[in-house]
């Protein structure tokens, strides 16, 4: 399978459709216990991404037997800022590969593209969160050099918390 990655153009109909299709599949994936995307979110999500200066989406396309190309993977990322280094950080918020293409190198290609983008932007690091039970995704991230933070372990394990507003 030939895979190519590119930075999505939020104004391209093809890219908008691909982002929405992949994000909808991801939001319903049992691995993340997702409930799916509500219709109201589906109508707005790509416009909302486009409205955010620091949002970026990376798409992976695979060549099909019929000569066409199909979107098979997606990363939605957001540039943030590290006050400890005074440099940007690229947070990978959504990382997904369509179910029939998992295990074929699509995720690694997407992360390589995100890594290259982060380097071009002068980022000091990339961050992401993964559910402890999502062993396949955690394995992919570790194989792409993501590591647990190496700060003072006497303080305990880093945990992810959220507050729904």
Automatic annotation (TrEMBL):
Taxonomic source organism: Allorhodopirellula solitaria
Sequence ranges assigned to domain N-acetyltransferase in this UniProt record: 1-165
Transmembrane segments: none
Stored InterPro entries: Acyl_CoA_acyltransferase, Bact_Acetyltransf, GNAT_dom
Molecular function terms, GO-annotated: acyltransferase activity, transferring groups other than amino-acyl groups
Designated name of the protein: Putative acetyltransferase
Keywords tagged on the record: Acyltransferase, Transferase
PROSITE patterns in the cross-refs: GNAT
UniProt-listed Gene3D superfamilies: 3.40.630.30
Keyword Acyltransferase: yes
């Amino acid at each position: 399978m030939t895979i190519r990655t590119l930075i999505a153009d939020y104004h391209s109909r093809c890219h908008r459709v691909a982002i929405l299709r992949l994000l909808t599949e991801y939001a319903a994936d049992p691995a993340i216990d997702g409930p799916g995307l509500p219709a109201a979110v589906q109508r707005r999500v790509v416009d909302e991404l486009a409205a955010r200066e620091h949002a970026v989406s990376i798409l992976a396309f695979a060549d099909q037997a019929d000569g066409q190309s199909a979107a098979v993977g997606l990363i939605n990322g957001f540039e943030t800022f590290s006050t400890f280094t005074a440099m940007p950080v690229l947070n990978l918020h959504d990382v997904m590969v369509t179910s029939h293409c998992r295990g074929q190198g699509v995720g690694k290609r997407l992360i390589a593209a995100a890594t290259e983008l982060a380097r071009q932007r002068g980022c000091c690091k990339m961050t992401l969160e993964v559910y402890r039970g999502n062993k396949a995704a955690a394995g992919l991230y570790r194989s792409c050099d993501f590591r647990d933070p190496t700060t003072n372990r006497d303080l305990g394990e880093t945990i992810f918390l959220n507050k729904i507003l």
